[in-house]
Amino acid sequence: xxxxxxxxxxxxxxxxxxxxxxxxxxxxxxxxxxxxxxxxxxxxxxxxxxxxxxxxxxxxxxxxxxxxxxxxxxxxxxxxxxxxxxxxxxxxxxxxxxxxxxxxxxxxxxxxxxxxxxxxxxxxxxxxxxxxxxxxxxxxxxxxxxxxxxxxxxxxxxxxxxxxxxxxxxxxxxxxxxxxxxxxxxxxxxxxxxxxxxxxxxxxxxxxxxxxxxxxxxxxxxxxxxxxxxxxxxxxxxxxxxxxxxxxxxxxxxxxxxxxxxxxxxxxxxxxxxxxxxxxxxxxxxxxxxxxxxxxxxxxxxxxxxxxxxxxxxx
Amino acid sequence: xxxxxxxxxxxxxxxxxxxxxxxxxxxxxxxxxxxxxxxxxxxxxxxxxxxxxxxxxxxxxxxxxxxxxxxxxxxxxxxxxxxxxxxxxxxxxxxxxxxxxxxxxxxxxxxxxxxxxxxxxxxxxxxxxxxxxxxxxxxxxxxxxxxxxxxxxxxxxxxxxxxxxxxxxxxxxxxxxxxxxxxxxxxxxxxxxxxxxxxxxxxxxxxxxxxxxxxxxxxxxxxxxxxxxxxxxxxxxxxxxxxxxxxxxxxxxxxxxxxxxxxxxxxxxxxxxxxxxxxxxxxxxxxxxxxxxxxxxxxxxxxxxxxxxxxxxxxxxxxxxxxxxxxxxxxxxxxxxx
Lengths: 315, 338
Fold this sequence. Notes:
heterodimer, A: about 325 residues, mainly alpha, ABC transporter involved in vitamin B12 uptake, BtuC, two-stranded antiparallel ribbon, 6 strands, about 10% strand, B: about 350 residues, globular
């Protein structure tokens, strides 16, 4: 029974992280009808930025609230910038082209980022080695949040860590904020209009380019936050993490119905729990296969997802 | 019937001659290069059937290669104990090899059917994600199967692959791609690529055609996988990773989506280029060969950027959907004065 409870807690904690990444997929898909393949890799870049900031801060100043906020802020800002650049220079010129073109571009960017970060590049600036690209090996992610047991039932049978609670709260908070943004603000209304039909939205005076750019920046910074939470949980960072986490988050978004914000949360929690149970009760090496099996089943039975609606294709 | 078999007969004769020449002059290096290039051609041309002609985007060709590779290797390893006594040993091996390749291809085709059916009912993008995930699943399944050697893989796979065998299959897939693209079946594929809704409105069974194209493409990926492992003499899950899939995707996209000869040309070029650079850097670069090792690392991010640049500047690829010789065969029409 205790084991089951622990699995539920771990699964929910993992699910909230997937949910934050899935939101980025869902938002971009909502406005552009594009699966942003590079989303997971943007997340990976964010984790490396956080790693670099933590490294510069030094071991002594880690663990304080200020340093955590600084790391998150720096990483989210860097990812927002990266998301903006990708949208501006890779996706925007292709917006009126066939969808396949944008998809191939997204795959190309994803590939360039995940394998570009596997290169080793160091420059020597006045005697100090500065690492530009981190190399393929996984690195230990520093403990930017000092681990504390917040709840311990049955002498270590069930443990809730502070990071699990924190990531759960951050995820829920960001999700509620996003829901408010999309349905209660002017920007959200513009976003929904662009999603409905960007040509008509442009005719009505909505700055489509700006709305799409903002959506990318928002999604990318959410991904950065999620990536840091993931790295704290996993205590490691490596260039291919974006590919795996991104794939799982995408599956979560599809389960919930891609384009649907609360659906992404439900899908991600379901996926997190499912993965945790498979790992807990069978063999941990099957973890990466779960998401994919889930995806196939969803596509077979209900391709529009749990909450999505079947949309007739506009010609 | 006879007419359609003539080119195959000629090809077999020519390839047998080439093989005999290669064996008599003992050109090891040329043989190895020829096998690598040939396998790339099979992969690129077969992926072009689904990515180029049909306009669906699969990025998991390596997964289907792995299915074919493991099936074929397991089969040849089992059959190695038995001999067809009425044939000379070398010929008996090749008979088994062809059988293994066909079974491997069939297994990959079956996997293609299972993966394609749910994802190809939907619009384009899903196939990309599902095939990407499929590559991962195959890796996980193989690593968890002790009978397939786990992550260490199958060792001692017999080295049956010959230049003639590789290029025979390359010839088959190129011929099939040509015939297909000019057949009514192929025209349905082109129609799906140009406008899926319109094709459906004209009565094309879009899902059926897409799945069939995908199955054919997967079959040849499986055959290429079998050739690949019997050339390497080992089958490990690490060999069939995402990088391999992406290499084939780059070949197809660079060569021109829908151009069989374009894909083949890009496959030849992109296989020979790194080999050439590696050889070059071994001779002129630093002694420890660090430059030659760099070639493999730098290649991957460059491929990614290449995809982006091609899409931004020439989204149809170098040859578009034309064949390499179209420029010379069809004189340009003069513009009609208005």
